[in-house]
Design goal:
By secondary structure, the chain is mainly α. The protein has four helices and four strands; from the N terminus they run H-E-H-H-E-E-E-H.
Length: 82
């Protein structure tokens, strides 16, 4: 994977670590809050990928605006389809 691939992935998804980093909390607590609030982990064709969440779903739940590339540490990156 290239740096651009990784950046594009994190622009769309939250992993356990990125969730904890972004919201300054313990990932298990944050995942429990999401699940209690009805936010489901990402699935594709019925397959689950653990505690992987769509960034838009998480940000909507926590009422946090979509992060820009600079706040994620990718200030000089551009992404396709922007």
């Amino acid at each position: 994977m290239t740096e651009d691939d990784i950046a594009a992935f994190h622009q769309r998804f939250f992993t356990q670590k990125t969730l904890a980093d972004e919201y300054n909390g313990f990932w298990r607590t944050l995942v429990a809050q999401l699940q209690a609030g009805g936010v489901e982990p990402f699935t594709s064709d019925g397959e689950t990928f653990g505690h992987l969440f769509l960034r838009a779903d998480v940000e909507r739940f926590f009422e946090k605006p979509v992060a820009d590339c600079k706040s994620l540490g990718w200030a000089n990156k551009s992404f396709p389809n922007e």
